[in-house]
User: Fold this.
Amino acid sequence: MNIKQAKQEVTNTLKAYLAKDSLGNYRIPPVRQRPILLMGPPGVGKTQIMEQIAAETGVGLVAYTITHHTRQSAVGLPFIEKRVYGGEEYSVTEYTMSEILASVYGLMEKTGLREGILFLDEINCVSETLAPMMLQFLQCKTFGNQRLPEGWLIAAAGNPPEYNRSVRDFDVVTLDRVKRIDVQEDFAVWKEYARQKGLHGAVISYLDIKKENFYRIETTAEGIQFATARGWEDLSELLAVYEALGLKADWEVVGQYIQMPRVARDFANYLELYNKYQKIYHVDEILKGTWRPVSVRELRAASFDEKLSVMGLLLSRVSEGARDVRQQDALCENLHAALTAFKEAAASGVETAEAMGALARSRREALRRAGDAGQVEKQRQTLALLEISALEDYRRRLMEEGLTAPEGAVEAVRGWFGQEVEKRSALARETKAELDHAFAFLEEAFGQGQELVIFVTELTAGLDTSWFIEVFGCDAYFRHNRELLFDDTRRRIREKIQAAKAEEQEKCHD
Assistant:
């Protein structure tokens, strides 16, 4: 499976394990709820999908890298307890609660969530002393004499031996008690994720051209060299900050993340070209609709890789704009729900500033609980913080302007909220204009060539751009998309005709 398919399968398994019958019993008894074992190369996204699943399903998440634990921290410490059996008193060894299980109970206490995922990374790299206890945990869901609470899915991840020399094999008894999912790297799936997360355009467009460099692990005379999905994503984060600070990332900096010198140098060279193209083709001018005729001629005569890079620049900028609009749209939606609650609270007699402050505090508390539960992704956290900031700003304005009467306060807040709605509209107008200008420039450069097919396909695949076009429209996109659909339909008809002819010929031969 690729990581997207694995995520869906883990989600489906979680839902199946948490499903209950009419009497409130789990449909699949806990003893039959096999732990999930994700096996795949390092840096492919096994940990991240657990965070996404917890956020999307609303369950808790406790995550541990098991190689960081000793037998004592994972299993607990022994102590002597007195027990009476058959009238005789005996000294019996008990164990304190495992740190891992204590974290599960701690999360349940802090958040009130009774169900969740316990994720154990690098499960097949545990120390020799801990290995028997981990196998027991996978088989019986117990550490010592302490059991994992019902309603918690055990998910473990490991690397195949070709990627990690310290791995140990599971025996058949253990493997027969887990649900094993083998995960493989898949650039197309990662690219979809990268667009959604807003990864650096140079990283995405480079890997579009050099897909073979997306995920590589090689053993050389100098040792193991590798490029992984995790490395590209972390490098992307660094590049964005370096650009904001005016710093340059040379091949040595790239090599700190992409630890395959040949690929690191290749990308560093591409990054220089990428930045050069941005200046040569005056991308800002293109998006404003004021490009120079020489830019059109140069792009038309450029190599295919250069064309892809320039389209990548345009796509990255349009995607960034669409992402900002989508975030502002979500903010307006959240604020609208909050202000409806504010209106009701003010009408019931609650002091206006206090009512607004209570809304801000409840949002902050919800964010804290989500963080405690391991459910907060970066984009969700950013949106929540923007909403809290707006509500706290409204509260401050209400106090400064002395707006205590419900009618006046609601009217003032409605006006302030209107500024957020107008910001959404302004961002949408700007992004729509940039998208129209990008299409016009590419049409002038390529006519109806394959480059436009690539551009339309990328817009369709992008979560933010496809959402933006669906909500705000784009005539050029729909025009080209109809042509693509027509060509695809015509191709399928030709294939059916050819298949029918071949079948007829076979009948004649018979």
User: Anything to note?
Assistant: The chain is about 65% helix and 10% strand.
